[in-house]
Amino acid sequence: MNIQSLKQLEQASETEIRNAADAVALERVRLKYLGRQSGTLTKALKSLKDLPEAERKAVGPAANAFRQRFEAALSARVRELVDNNALKRIAREKIDVSAPGTRLPKGHLHPLTQLIEKAVDIFSGMGFTVAQGPEVETEFYNFDALNVPKDHPARDMQDTFWLDVPGLLLRTQTSSVQIHYMEQHKPPLRVIVPGRVFRNEATDATHETQFYQLEGLMVDEDVSLANLKAVLGVFFRLLLDDEDIRIRFRPSYFPFVEPGVEVDISCFKCNGKGCAICKRTGWIEVMGAGMVHQAVFEAVGIDPRRWRGFAFGAGLDRIAMIKYGVDDVRLFYDADMRFLKQF
Hints:
This protein is of the alpha+beta class and 343 residues long. The protein has 2 domains: 3-93; 111-340, Bira Bifunctional Protein, Domain 2 (BirA Bifunctional Protein, domain 2), CATH 3.30.930.10. Helices cover 41% and strands 18% of the residues. It is built from 11 helices and 9 strands. Strands 1-4-5-9-8-7-6 form a 7-stranded mixed β-sheet, with helices on both faces. A two-stranded antiparallel ribbon has the order 2-3.
């Protein structure tokens, strides 16, 4: 090993370091020159002891300087490769903030949920509180406290899902929640109860074994059917987006109200002139209502001589059918996306 051969070796190493395309290739170059056993520069440094003293004094410093320059060149190439990879990654992952975004598919609320939320908003604006109650109910809250004792024929009107536990059932009406609420709160009261109810009925285009109801209750010292008519008038005009809707009461019977009424609205499709939706009558039946029966007040410890109130209950599925022009209630529960995407 002499000065000339060291220079040739260094030139070759510089070329190999410069041509190394990645860390693996660079490591091969390092091992070729500085490997513990077979590295070319390592062997040259070990052979210095065999050279004459005069030659060793000339070659030794040159070989050590070569080693330092070689290691510095390796380090510089490593940094260069790292920087190049970083730039490539940045270019690959670059985000063009000016490019139009990709619109992701979004779902939406079920039509019944939309209707419930709108109804809640309307009644909340009139000062009504929203209450919830259990879907598994006791016989007392579902029937007895609502003036429907065991031998009352009105029980035959509500085919019931009874549970194996005596006295427990799936609630047939959200009216049970008004009993819970009146037990826990003192008048005056304004409350609505949206929720699911269950009846053991045959399934067809207008009936399901489960459906949604909206129960309402207002109790004060001076409440009348006129107040009920005014509240329902506001509700249906806003719910159906029709300022011309009129309200009509017809006498009816419900055991928990006296007097009881069926509530009709003027047909919003034909403005009362008569069409297929209103069966040519100009009116659509939408709910039952009336003044709270004294027996109901007594069951919850409210003095009927001081307090009066009205209550109403509507099947939200039926109102949804009217609002959206749906002719089969089962469509709301079939999870058919072709139907649901229309809302």
